[in-house]
Specification:
The complex is a heterodimer of chains A (341) and B (269). Chain A has 341 residues and is mainly alpha-helical. Chain A has 15 helices and 4 strands. In chain A, 71% of the residues lie in helices and 4% in strands. Chain A has a two-stranded antiparallel sheet with strand order 1-4. In chain A, strands 2-3 form a two-stranded antiparallel ribbon. Chain B is an alpha/beta fold and 269 residues long. Chain B has a domain of 169 residues: P-loop containing nucleotide triphosphate hydrolases (Rossmann fold, 3-Layer(aba) Sandwich), CATH 3.40.50. Chain B is 32% helix and 23% strand. In chain B, the strands form 2 sheets. In chain B, strands 6-7-8-3-9-10 form a 6-stranded mixed sheet, sandwiched between helices. Chain B starts with 22 loop residues before the first strand and ends in a 5-residue tail after the last helix. The chains are: A mainly alpha (341), B alpha/beta (269). Chains A and B meet through helix 1, helix 10 and helix 11 of A and helix 2 and helix 7 of B.
């Protein structure tokens, strides 16, 4: 604000002199899930035109099942990114938790509930370690989780001795997440429902509780949050712990989806989860975004991969398309963030 | 030149000399290693007044305010709120006691809306099961309170409390910060350089807001470098110099030039 605006016509600032493009940017700014929603609808229409089989109910059901694991990881990732952090260890935490679940369930003859509880504990312990490194040792989240990514990956391999546990060797509860049941002729998988449940809980917690507001406030401006009386470290720690809980859920869904627990599958999913978050309109700078956007982002990636493969293109074109999507999404985010008044 | 005349212990020279100070500091000393930040400062804030604190850089303005608002703990001296001794260890302590501070770096969260910012850190939960067990917040109630608060403060430009704060102008953001400080039955509002980053008209709006606060009976401490603003708004002026209170003057008793002279040590009160 300079004196020139102050001496100008006082009514001038109330007149909306923005161009249609700026106005559109304002709307996208206010509703972060809008742009991924538009992209998802458009891509479904386009891929539906390219191939008849794409819009078949069985194919759409398959897409949701393919998205379930990454989608759940991305829900945890969204929480972290909202606080202006990043978690490179989500895939590794999931793998470690799934190995613990599978080993306990198959080897010891313990009840499957105990196996799930152990997996949950592992997820929370990993989250607690990440949270400790970020809040107490003040490490940048990127570095902290880069370190724990390697640690968790190695521990998972050491613990499992590199061996895959097959689904048939585990009680049925462990692979229950992979089962499907018909709803109006569509095969719906339990894992997908669990993922949606996680999104629903997070959506309510983020938008309707004080904790949710504090997560946004911490990601927005840490110092402002502290001066408002928010315990920043406590919020951060709770975010990493909650992420650990969601990652344990992802581990269960992964066991069902793969009908096995393997120490080698899923470690690289951290980048896929970040991709979904970013395409979903959540800002890597924190404080901006909605959890539903991430679900849309994960679905967009799933639709692109499935659609391109149905179109008969090489798998490398899927990777290429996802890469372009990320760059476009972040550029769009940068442009949208320029809105000021 | 270097003699410091401490007149504030004798009581204020104007406004309400017989009332009990809402906020009072006696003999505050604060040192940082070998640097003396405060060297025995006395200060009194009376009901319904705007007290400005002026002083050159390094005179101890910020340290004084930090001691009053709990951001620093003084080495010696005492702070009284409504005549009762208080000990603030953290800013939250001062806030809980009713001293609200608006910091120079606005403590607002840009991407949250106005209502959320007003209630940030003290959200209201819904009654019954939804609030107690599910810990859901009362969004509608908070928005309604926010609207009422802004209306009472006469901030007419902020109609829609669901607008994110980052879409507001600098003056409007300052207004949100001030409204938050005033909104929760606070006893004292402290404003640190509230007009430093604002244009002429926006500064006027903020000063108007300060007057509204005072008229509602909330005493205000305002720290400012801007002499015209200080002389426009303040009932009394606490001149800080070399870690002590050089004088307490009023806009009527002294001119701006005289105030600056006291501030720099060129003259005594």
């Amino acid at each position: 604000m300079t004196t020139t605006t102050a001496t100008a016509d006082p009514a001038a600032e109330f007149l909306d002199r923005r161009s249609p493009l700026e106005r559109a940017r304002g709307v996208l700014h206010r509703y972060p899930a809008l742009s991924p929603a538009i992209v998802l609808v458009l891509s479904v229409i386009v891929f539906g035109q390219l191939n008849d089989r794409f819009l078949a109910l069985s194919n759409l059901s398959l897409i949701t099942q393919q998205v379930a694991v990454v989608g759940t990881l991305a829900a945890a990732q969204t929480l972290i990114i909202l606080t202006a952090g990043i978690d490179l260890s989500v895939g590794a935490v999931m793998v470690l938790a799934s190995m613990v679940m599978a080993q306990v369930a198959s080897g010891s003859g313990a009840p499957p509930v105990l196996a799930l509880a152990f997996g949950l504990l592992v997820g929370m312990a990993c989250g607690a370690l990440n949270g400790f490194l970020v809040t107490r040792l003040k490490l940048p989240p990127f570095i902290a989780t880069l370190g724990t990514f390697n640690v968790f990956t190695a521990v998972a391999l050491l613990y499992s001795r590199g061996a895959t546990v097959r689904g048939g060797d585990m009680p049925a509860v462990m692979t229950w997440t992979g089962t499907t049941f018909p709803v109006f002729g569509v095969r719906v998988s339990t894992g997908v429902l669990l993922m949606l449940g996680a999104y629903l809980v997070l959506a309510v917690a983020l938008s309707r509780t004080a904790w949710g507001k504090h997560v946004y406030a911490v990601g927005d401006d840490k110092d402002a949050a502290r001066l408002s009386g928010i315990s920043v470290n406590r919020v951060l720690l709770s975010v990493y712990l909650s992420a650990g809980v969601i990652l344990a859920l992802a581990a269960w869904i992964q066991i069902g989806r793969a009908n096995a627990a393997s120490p080698n599958v899923g470690v690289d999913m951290n980048l896929d989860s970040i991709t979904a978050v970013v395409i979903g309109g959540t800002s890597l700078f924190g404080g901006r975004g909605v959890i539903w956007g991430t679900l849309l982002g994960a679905l967009i990636v799933g639709v692109f991969r499935n659609g391109l493969s149905l179109a008969g293109l090489d798998v490398l074109y899927q990777t290429l398309a996802v890469g372009v999507l990320v760059i476009v999404a972040v550029s769009l985010d940068q442009w949208i963030r320029k809105v000021r008044k | 030149m270097t003699t410091i005349d401490d007149t504030s212990t004798a009581g204020p020279s104007a406004v309400v000399p017989h009332a009990t100070p809402v906020l009072q500091a006696r003999g505050l000393v604060k040192t940082f290693g070998r640097v003396v930040g405060l060297d025995g400062v006395d200060l009194a804030l009376y009901p319904g007044e705007v007290l400005a604190i002026i002083g050159d850089n390094g005179a101890g303005k910020s340290t004084l305010v930090k001691c009053l608002t709990g951001a620093e703990v003084p080495d010696q001296g005492e702070i009284l709120l409504d005549g009762e001794k208080v000990h603030f260890k953290r800013p939250q302590d001062a806030r809980a006691a009713g001293i609200e501070t608006v910091y120079q770096t606005l403590a607002v969260s840009p991407s949250l809306d106005i209502a959320s910012n007003l209630f940030l850190g003290r959200e209201v939960r819904r009654p019954g099961f939804l609030g107690k067990v599910l810990r859901l917040t009362d969004q509608a109630g908070m928005r309604e309170s926010a609207r009422r608060e802004l209306r009472e403060l006469g901030i007419s430009t902020l109609q829609d409390v669901t607008v994110p704060v980052e879409n507001l102008s600098g003056g409007q953001r300052q207004a949100v910060a001030v409204a938050r400080a005033a909104a929760f039955g606070s006893k004292v509002v402290v404003l640190d350089e509230p007009t430093a980053a604002l244009g002429v008209r926006e500064s006027g709006q903020v000063l108007e807001l300060v007057r509204t606060l005072r008229d509602r009976g909330i005493p205000v401490i305002i720290i400012s470098h801007n002499m015209p603003h200080v002389f426009e708004i303040a009932d009394r002026i606490h001149v800080q110099r070399l870690g002590r209170c050089a004088a307490t003057i009023t806009p009527q008793s002294h001119s701006m030039t005289e105030a600056v002279a006291i501030m720099t040590g060129a003259a005594q009160a």
